[in-house]
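Here comes an entry:

___
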Amino acid sequence: MKRATQAAETPQVGRSVPRLESWLKVTGRAEYVHNLRLPGMLYGKIFRASVAHGRIKRIDVAAAQAVGGVHRVVTGEDIRKLVPEPYYGPAFHDQPILALDKVRYVGEPVAVVLASDPHVAEEAAHLIMAEYEELPAVYDEVEAMSSRAIVHEALKPAGTFPDLKHLKGKTNTNVALDFHLRRGDAQAALNIAHRVFEHRFRTQQVMHTPLEPLVSVAESTERSLVIHTASQSPSFVRIEIARLLGWPENRIRVRVPFLGGGFGAKLYIKLEALVAVLSLLTGKPVKISLTMEEQFFTITKHASTFRIKSGVTGDGRVLARECEVWWNGGAYADIGPRVTQKSGFTAPGPYDIDHVHIDSYSLYTNLPPAGALRGFGIPQLVWAYESHTDMVARELGIDPIEFRRRNLLREGRPQATGTLMRDAALEKVLDRLSILMDWGKPFDRGTATLKRGRGVAIGFKACIANTASLAAVSVNADGSCTVYTSCVDMGQASDTAMAQIAAEVLRIPAETVTVVHSDTDVTPFDMATLGSRSLFHSGNAVKLAAEDALKRIHELRTELKLPADTAIPEVFRKKYGMRAGSVTGAGNFIPPYTPPDENGQTDNATPFWMVGASGVELEVDTETGRVRVTRLVNVADVGTPINPRVVQTQLSGAAIMQLGFTLFEKMQFDEAGQLRNASLAEYKIPGFLDLPEEIVNEAVSAHQGTGPFGGKGVGETGTFGVSPAIANAIHDAVGVRLTSLPMNPEAVFMALAEKK
């Protein structure tokens, strides 16, 4: 450990600083909510709905209440006595804390048993009986557009986020949001195109599988409420709980220690409202910890259907693109409308297309709710448009990389929204991918039964806009530094990155910086840790705060008539006559944003663009349909890497996660909406034997002009191109085109059989 009084000898940004929290995790000292025990704490176990859509006729809790050790059984009607309008949600206030009047999916929370022992609570929960009047249900997102099975009779827009303030409640429909983008005249351009291509693609519903399932603890008094929770958005939790209770925010404290993974599962409110009201009803601390099985019934990734139509010239230039997208949001909207809108922005792909017609729909169904999962819909979208792109290129007889290069957006050109492309190294990324894949060299095609192929894909994403991040930086008398930020470290090494940014400004070693974990009584507001926004948004806030602190130190030097290079400890000694005192700087960062008009047009859709490309080499066993990825290449534009080693691990982790979604993972529902594989015994995620023999990660030389020291987010970038690159490689190997995920052995085998 470096002494605090030592000045940094080298730049701190661009160093592969070992993760500052690592020693806590490897020694078992890291704090997680799962480990929290409070005196007198009650444990909650949730009783869940057994039908997909039905009116609640009766809930019988007598047998559960009679079990020894049970403190209380709580239903939605009990909660309504404390909170008259017990509905929450980031886009719509549509989700009840516990089901009221009716249930909308199998697995929806209906009642909670509270006991001093979690096993007693679980035993008692099995004794609850519920009777329902079943209603027609709808499960498919396209069918939901016209289905007579209406999931919500009315909607209440939350009005929380600036980019979703246009939401309006609708009746007699399952559409939560319809987003439309129009540029040029797509139909006229399609009419004059040399060739027109139209394809349809599907993605499946999957779940996040963080190592740490959802868990929350609440402890209350008549005047205050403390929530300890595994959340990616503590500031939002406080705002929403205050709204539900009608309390001022300063009576609510939300603490978040380390997270054992999140990937979007722990955004906004999940368990926090439930444990809060349970604690208030009982006057005791209450803890609810979900099992991995229960995660499947809490939040998922959107299933989706895409229809893409492109018109091209004879020399391979895309003139026009139509795209229609249906997003399966499940029973409650969560943040699905933002997924719909943000993906709609980039539905044409990273290509220079003058004529664009996009329709994107967020739809309610009677399946578990869908929300954010590592990309806000972009991996699904890239899967569709990059599979489509390869199909068009091969049909035209143009090399797939050359076809993409001819159509790429360049710096300063307008994207489909009208926003000019800035600091997006699309061409660099594609060129580097081509080199790393040895694209122009001969390729071993395998044997008679073991065929080999390769494929590429490139995608981009507009980062979430118009969201605020605040930070504070306190410089101590010995020259050490403390960073206060509500950016949540959930394994992405954000603590280390924030320390490096502050250290770079203050010219001290990053190892002398401490980052205080999210605590709404201590750390300032941050919208949420999501969407690869944190390095850019929170990082800029930390940089501004550190600069403010440094300015104040310079002012002290001037006041004391000290040389400009006087060490910080000497400044404080001169000021206070001893080693004492501190200086605190504040930073507030909100990037500019212009809401889109009725045609989806805006001159400022995003504060920055994320760019990622993938290339794969694989083998297909033609006798079994098994696909084995042998080599995976990820190339990304992450601006200036703040910590190169972390960038490498982020790209690998994201790509491996997407590999699972591509080849294995799928939530399987029966005709009654019952999930059939709600455990990791039946729900297949990648194991070590499923990983490629070689994974290559590379960040191209780039610079984000508005980012902290040229940096920008990376967490989602490695997901973009994996699925279509694999699909394109399968086609390259065996000549079959799969258009639905996952591409498991059965799907590949059936496609091969149909080809024969």
Q: What stands out?
A: The longest helix spans residues 534-559. The mean pLDDT is 95. The chain has 19 helices and 27 strands.
